[in-house]
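Late entry, evening session. Most of the bench is empty. Finally got around to the prediction I had been postponing all week. Sequence below, unchanged from the version circulated by S.P.
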Amino acid sequence: MKTPTLETERLILRPITLDDAPAIQRYFNNWEIIKYISNAPWPYPDDGALTHICNSVLPDVKLGNWHVWAITIKRGDGECIGLINYRLKANNNDNRGFWLAVPYHGQGLMTEAVLVVNEFVFNTLGIDSFKTRNVKGNIGSHRIKVKTGGCIIGEIKEEMENGHTETMTLWKVTRESWEEAKAKL
């Protein structure tokens, strides 16, 4: 299935393209984001976004393994301000991931994006549950997962690309837990 464009009240989530590389490079190349991403190198290379999109994202999307959306402001200029993805063929602990540019933190935008992606995962793809994770110290990600139906199922230690070892919180989101959380928002 081709990755569809999804919309919320304030956002358009559209399939990622190579044209998003400059904005991703500008916003993602920030320690406040990268310190929470297990497979992101630090310092971030000058061609990091373009290389990642070309060598990892687009090939996996083409194979049908991954849905990756560029997050954009509905009334904006279409610039990518973050990414959210759902991996159809993932390891056992990480189907969905996301990040948002620091200037857009604290506005509820990522919660909006997660809700519409969960809607797609549960209602369009017909998935009954999935797992996700985050660095234990990532309070923002933790809050979003709680608000959108995540239930903690454990912790693991993981070696990060940046050389640190972090404790990762493992989460499970079920159709039922998501429906209950959505009703409270």
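Two things to note before I forget:
The first strand starts at residue 6 and ends at 7.
Residues 109-124 form the longest helix (16 residues).
Will write this up properly tomorrow.
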